[in-house]
Design goal:
Blueprint (H helix, E strand, L loop, with lengths): L1 E6 L3 H16 L3 E2 L8 E6 L4 H17 L7 E6 H6 L2 H5 L5 E3 L7 H16 L12 E3 L21 E5 L1 E2 L10 H5 L3 E2 L2 H13 L4 E5 L20 H10 L6 E5 L8 H9 L6 E3 L7 H7 L5 H14 L4 E8 L6 H14 L3 E6 L17 H24 L5 E9 L7 E5 L4 E4 L9 E9 L4 E5 L5
Parallel strand pairs: 1-2, 1-3, 3-4, 4-5, 5-6, 7-10, 10-11, 12-13, 13-14, 17-19
Antiparallel strand pairs: 8-9, 15-16, 15-18, 16-17, 18-19
């Protein structure tokens, strides 16, 4: 039987979907990229912004309408929206069968098996052909669920992998629904994570990215500091970096309050740590940061960047910024523009504030119009794009190391790889380049993508 599995949202959702796919393949299911040919349609959802939820709802509605003559198809929502909305989704989507939350990804294959079997049996009863819905809502908490996302299905030549090290978040930023959809912080034991990384490296992986909602706060409530006072996260970085054969190590997404002296020092000491940090800022206004409950000032944030740059010269920073937060004035927004320039980011994800149900910010006065949000979004993007073009232009004429990940997403006739600073380089290459580390000479930049050529020895 064929399964269509689509993922919305962050890298953690991608990793969760990978586990679901692995479990389904182990049961004999086949994955397909065509929802209209699928016997099972699963959408792993995101709730961070309303747009992501609407996309998932729209996709499920469209697929259901096209498959209306195939009542045996099983439909399911997984992940954050499923967790947040629960049983109400069954009322919103008449053909929906499964609603499986963020702590139950390891149960998806069981639920799919049950739904497929139930619908098959009911098809044998003519009186029930019009009543084939199979309703399961599984959104409860489950102890130890953070340890269930651990299996990988690697493609030929795959050299990078995500490794989930924790679930949940205790920060409760006023705009964010994640603590409600993912629960409280829960970390996996270091030994289990290291074993997973070692297994990946033995199968050809050269770079891993450690994943967590607030990844650098890993283990703070479960595991002790070591004798030198190093946090559990730094202990984890050291242990993973020591895996023989691992070339590169990344993590995402951190929080500024988790960048203490031991983590900054780790960038000076651990060569496997790549020279790139995705470092969410959210706003450049202290007043808005306080309203967001972020726990730092912009002065503190910029000081952390300076300390990291001193520890690892050449490090690149990217960030997340929200515009149009309730009560954000023109002065607040001007402070954000100034902070982005001062931080000298290499790139940024800019988001228009989106009210989320049952979050404090949704109840604040002075909610902005869509027009104001869009204007500020575009103004900030202009600054971000200017910085990105300048940083990329500075690399033209230089040689940089890349890890080739496979065909370019924009031109499948070329290959692409990433630098240690997380910049994409497109180049002419052959299949034997995939999964390898080597230098390329940067010939030119389109502004956002670098183009290069492999050294003669690699051509």
């Amino acid at each position: 039987m064929k399964v269509y599995l689509k993922t919305y949202g962050c890298q953690m959702n991608e990793r969760d979907s990978e586990q679901v796919a692995r479990d389904l393949l182990g049961r004999g299911y086949e994955l397909t990229g065509n929802a209209e040919l699928a016997d099972v349609v699963l959408l792993n959802t995101c709730s961070v912004r309303d747009q992501a939820e609407q996309k998932a709802l729209g996709k499920m509605g469209t697929v259901g309408a096209k498959n209306r003559r195939r009542p045996e198809v099983v439909y399911g929502f997984l992940g954050c929206m499923a967790q947040a909305r629960g049983e109400s989704l069954l009322r919103e989507v008449p053909h929906l069968d499964l609603v499986v939350g963020t702590q139950k990804f390891h149960r998806v294959a069981d639920h799919v098996d049950a739904a497929v079997a139930a619908k098959r049996s009911r098809l044998l009863e003519p009186a029930r052909v019009d009543d084939l819905r199979f309703s399961v809502v599984d959104v409860g908490e489950e102890e130890g669920s953070q340890n269930t996302i651990r299996e990988h299905t690697l493609k030929a030549g795959q050299a990078t992998a995500f490794v989930s090290i924790m679930q949940g978040c205790n920060m409760h930023c006023t705009y964010c629904i994640v603590p409600r959809t993912r629960g409280e912080e829960r970390g996996r034991p270091i030994a289990e994570i290291v074993a997973e990384v070692r297994s990946l490296v033995e199968r050809g992986v050269k770079e891993v990215t450690l994943l967590g909602q607030i990844v650098n706060l890993y283990g703070r409530h479960e595991f002790p500091k070591d004798a030198a006072g190093k946090s559990p996260f730094v202990q984890l970085l050291e242990a993973v970096a020591a895996v023989d054969g691992l070339e590169r190590l990344r993590f995402t997404s951190p929080h500024p309050i988790g960048f203490r002296a031991d983590l900054i020092d780790a960038f000076a000491r651990i060569p496997e740590l790549c020279e790139h940090v995705h470092f969410p800022m959210q706003s450049g206004s202290d007043r808005i940061l306080k309203a967001m409950h972020r726990g730092y000032t912009i002065e503190k944030y910029l000081d952390l960047l300076a300390r990291l740059r001193a520890a690892r010269p050449g490090i690149a920073f990217t960030t997340d910024v929200i515009v149009g937060f309730p009560g954000e004035t023109e002065e607040d927004f001007a402070a954000t523009l100034a902070a982005v320039r001062a931080a000298d980011f290499h790139n940024a994800f800019v988001f228009r504030y989106s009210p989320r149900a049952e979050t404090p910010a949704a109840e604040l006065a002075d909610q902005h119009s869509d027009e104001t949000k869009e204007a500020r979004n575009q103004a900030l993007l202009d600054v971000v794009n200017e910085l990105a073009r300048r940083h990329n232009a500075a690399l033209v004429g230089q040689r940089v190391q890349i890890l080739c990940e496979g065909p370019s997403k924009t031109n499948p006739n070329r290959l692409s790889g990433r630098t240690r600073t997380n910049k994409i380089v497109v180049f002419e290459g052959r299949d034997r380049h995939i999964g390898r580390l080597f230098d390329v000479a940067i010939d030119h930049s389109s502004g956002f993508t670098l183009y290069g050529r492999a050294d003669v020895a690699e051509a």
